[in-house]
Amino acid sequence: MDLDYMSNIKYIEVDIRRHTRLLHPKLVVLIVTSSSTGKINIMPASWVMPTSVNPPLVTLALSPRRYTYELLQSKNEFTVNPVSMDMLKVVDYTGSVSGRETDKLRGTGIRLLEPKALSTPCIDDSLACIECKLWAQYPAGDHVLVVGRVMAARVLGKAWRNDSYVLDVAKPLFHLGGDNYTTVTGDVFAP
């Protein structure tokens, strides 16, 4: 983009269908759901946020057309697994095929981690795992806000210090929009 041209324009219009990109980058997580027969599905997501400390709640914006949503309705639990830049190929693959037709575990070679409080597993080698029991759901346009009550949480020890990620070790993956991702430099700033 021509920076001289841009220096004369303070703001540019954005198609309102792209408003979400103005709120990126967003941390990438792998959402794991499972069926009553034990079939595992993995879906990348970046529209995830903490919602409450007491009770501990996490909210995920999820399209009801997704297989993940279907499994969530049958089992009422899911895990949220933030990932590092090292898992970019896994994120790309699991986001490009449907778990209805494809065994995503076999396609990626992902190893699972036993859950602590639920029956849906976590992703081994993810930065963390947050185990959630379905708390509430709210229709929101073409998505549903799925609120999960956190039942257990753990983090990769080498990536965590003083109640925070060690960014240059963790290298959390952030979604910029489309097929674009980034990570952080490790510089930390405080006011």
Automatic annotation (TrEMBL):
<dbReference type="InterPro" id="IPR012349">
    <property type="entry name" value="Split_barrel_FMN-bd"/>
</dbReference>
<feature type="domain" description="Flavin reductase like">
    <location>
        <begin position="21"/>
        <end position="162"/>
    </location>
</feature>
<dbReference type="Pfam" id="PF01613">
    <property type="entry name" value="Flavin_Reduct"/>
</dbReference>
<dbReference type="InterPro" id="IPR052174">
    <property type="entry name" value="Flavoredoxin"/>
</dbReference>
<protein>
    <recommendedName>
        <fullName>Flavin reductase like domain-containing protein</fullName>
    </recommendedName>
</protein>
<comment type="similarity">
    <text>Belongs to the flavoredoxin family.</text>
</comment>
<dbReference type="InterPro" id="IPR002563">
    <property type="entry name" value="Flavin_Rdtase-like_dom"/>
</dbReference>
<keyword id="KW-0285">Flavoprotein</keyword>
<dbReference type="GO" id="GO:0010181">
    <property type="term" value="F:FMN binding"/>
</dbReference>
